[in-house]
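One-letter codes give the sequence; each number marks local geometry. A record appears below:


***
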Amino acid sequence: MVMSMKKIDVHTHLIGNICGIGSEGELAPIGGGKAVYASGKVIQLIPSKYGDRELTPEVLLSVLKENDVEFSVCLQGNYAGFQNIYTYEAAKKYPSSLVPAATYDPFFRNKQLIINHLFEDLQIKVLKMEVSNGSGLMANHPTVDLNGEVMHEVYQTARQYHLICFIDIGRPGNNCYQVDALRDAIKQYPDITFIICHLTAPQHNQMDILEYNLQMLNLQNVYFDIASLPNNTKQPYPFTEAQSYIRTAIDVMGKDKILWGSDFPAAMNYCSYKEAYSYIEESQIFTQEEKEHILYKNAKKLFGGMLS
């Protein structure tokens, strides 16, 4: 039997009120963890056992405790709507267990007021930018150049407030998926720590795309979270293709650049929370040292100092 390892989850979400805006319009709750877009499309956003119309910090904390997870970084997920203040208040209430991340739309006319409040007044230390064309920046704005003026203002905000910057570039094949532009942009900000979500979100049978992305983004200040790899590759447990993607990432970049995340709660519609980490714990293709870095040590180094 594999002993449970120390873990930190760098990719979770809290949802005080489902109020998303995506490529199919506004997203509204309809109960049972489900939500409906203006197009009429219904999705299971929250597994029903975790919430009806919200995902509370208490539910998240119970899951973390049950699975021996030391703490979590609570990111913003545009699909559910911005939850900046809800997440901040949760972290304020549970400062030893939750690290809050904030986001904003760089097209907001009064964005500087928002930036000042989130990162100066509230002292949030993590920025999450989702630029995907499903529910991120490019879902309801024209295509944005990740190496263009709009995004450089975002990177400069991260520099000004000394923020760790998560960025979700969506899925391969979409206009948001700009690996070369992102590389060119990141090279101009060697003082900012960037974390690319979902290991660049390779889907089933896309090892060639992943290998290219890793080579392009193998920069000193770039890390990757591996949240939702099982969901994206769409294979049964133990998610062998997801394991192979992680193995490739280690071989290219080393064990110090990869961070485990669950993408709780939405990803738990595909696999259980335990399965989201045990496929790594139980794998035979990673060394014990590699597992410790992925599941715990890398995140502890980046975020441990943000707890109180």
Summary: The CA atoms of residues 47 and 268 lie 7 Å apart. The chain has a mean pLDDT of 97.
